[in-house]
Amino acid sequence: MAEPKDPLSMRCPESMTAVAASTTSLGTRAPAALTLRVVAECSRSKARACELRLPHGTVATPVFMPVGTQGTMKGVTAAQLDNLGCRICLGNTYHLGMRPGPELIQKASGLHGFMNWKRNLLTDSGGFQMVSLLALSEVTEEGVRFRSPYDGAEILLSPEKSVEIQNALGSDIMMQLDDVVSSTLTGSRVEEAMHRSIRWLDRCILANQRPDQQNLFAIIQGGLDPALRRKCLEEMTKRNVPGFAIGGLSGGESKEQFWKMVTLSTDQLPREKPRYLMGVGYATDLVVCVALGCDMFDCVFPTRTARFGSALVPTGNLQLKKKQFAKDFRPIDEACTCPTCQRHTRAFLHVLLHSNNTAALHHVTVHNIAYQLQLMNAIRTSIVEHRFPEFVQNFIKTMYGEVGHCPTWAVEALQSVGISLS
Amino acid sequence: MKLSLSRVVQGCRLGTLSNLGKKGDRCMEFPGCLLYTRTGSAPHLTHDTLQVISGVPAMTQLTLSSLAEHYEILEEYKEGIGKFIGMPESVFYCSLHDPVNPCPAGFVTNKSVSVWGVGGRLEMTVAKFMAIQQALQPDWLQCLSDGEALCADASSSKRAKKSVDRTLAFLDECLKLQEQSEVLRSCVMIGVIEGGDILEERLRSARETAKRPVGGFLLDGFHGDAMTKETRLRLISSVTAELPENKPRLICGIGQPDEVLECIEAGVDLFESFFPYQATERGCALTFSFDYEPNPEDMVLQQNGQKEGEENGEHIDKIITTKCVPETSFEINLKEKMYRDDFGPLVGGCSCYCCKNHSRAYVHHLLVTNELLAGVLLMMHNFQHYFGFFHAIREALRKDRLGQLKELIYRQAC
Question: What is the extent of the structural domain holding B205?
């Protein structure tokens, strides 16, 4: 039987069945748990609208993925989240790996079964949380060594361990364990982390026991150094992973450096695979990074800020606890179709937010998730209808009033892909 | 408003209240309970999660203590509290205080009563009280009253007499102001029966209040530990014997299933539903059975928190985690370690959103990790369970099975 030529394959030819069943060698093609169909592309910028097919259903991109850290979307039920149109959300491997732990979740039929979420789930590797949440963590070639904050036990999170936990969680997309360094760091540590992330990617690919059901994404590193980024891109795109994330950004770096790394990355990432920009969720950042060619985004910001009574609107945000809203009998946003805006006024939410009834937080969380999803939907529709540049111009005008108030980095980033704001 | 009594069984009244609400088109069965709210919203619940619950009562309880400080906003809003809180379809009863948050005693005078909101103490004269009610526009309102007869250490018949005198004086003044307000004339005034633990005062309060044109009666001051159960029930029966049959009797501060049944036998019609909220705040799920005619198989499913063959283990867990001991015997504490890997529903056979979609293990996880969803899911289950209990009471009265229901409930009370 003739076998298709696979230039990346390093194996000896095998039968088709063996190819289908084989799961772990570098460059082996397993049955696709992910397909991306590019539906429309902006003729000027790098924006695209796609259809992402995953084991738990289709996701329209560009997409914003709300973060449900500990197997829950912060006071919003799975049914409510589904009704808002969410088709993919995040769970955190670090948190869930600690409590309740992978064994229990596996018993519960994976994270989908445990939280009763029938749509898609993406889990991160746990690496970022450990480095950011734990005072004492040590990175070696083996993995990240740290002390559990719950019982003080010493734990090693290796690429293999991270994938093992994510396999137990059963997420549709899982992230490689990467060697995360702060984006403001310079010097040899950044280069070391970039090379190690490549080696850890290979170990993660090998460790994935369920490539036909769970998609392992690579994470491009390299800090703010274009040469390191390019090297990382060159190497990681040689691996046959179903998707790529752009990592190591969304830290303390300047927006100027940020967008340049994003656009450099998308330039070198394959067209037919999704590009996931991690940790980005502010409206302006989403619009600009879609223009730069990103498909998927996640951020705790919308849900976290909701719990402080801050509601997202096209002109920015409303701090609903403030006195100015006490007698404001309009909904948060007249044009918003979410359940909160359909039924409640700013004045009522103001009153409720000053009580200890948690329902107040849930109202705003529902709205903020709806806001993000509606924004992405509007972006996508404008791409499909070939008017994305006009959409961007309108968005900026609404958000900033005058073009002069729009942050310089955003103007330049959009300019770089042919969208002018004057 | 019309009250139709369909039967009276061993002192328990079964019937319907109809022509409720501004349009006069709502109705409510009794014995029953009202939907408990905090600052105008069911605790933890938005409209979406509330409407998924079966058996939500037609009447919602609002508390003046949580809303009074906002009355200027409501005055400007003009359309009443129902629309303001996003529940335009509900019928509202506005009580003075919140049954869950006791307020400091010693602030009732001949001229005023105080409530405590987020911003502190709000003192209300009759005029102020009625002005606030004019802005809220509830369907039923608890009249301004002196509920502190038993607040001091020693019960005194002088204090009890004062509570009755003051409450009647407040009632007469409020009724006068109600007459003068077109908006308030469509509200139903609920007269409040006071008198502490002194029988003559209770009787006087009942008889005198019944003479006034009130739409119903609230039996106040029977909650807490101030009197023994026997005294309480004796007094309640004596009071209800003096009240007209055709007007509803409410009681505040009583929520435990066994106490609810006792009060119904003593002639009470309507209760609050703060009890399921308190269970929720403890991290507990109501699990008591009210299925007095169960299938033999269902009996196993409904046993409180027991997994088969694990009685000993459960006992040991309870010793180790004494901090998690449930408040009452009508519930299980989902924080207990034994639920960590219990993938069954909170209550077998329960059709609430939580039991249909989630497990004890998941709720346990949410509680251990301090997640907001724990409160949402537990509130949904606890409300539905509690409303189901009242439905069972009405069914038992309809089918002459009260004795069996009582026996089942008292068996679980300890």
Answer: 30-272
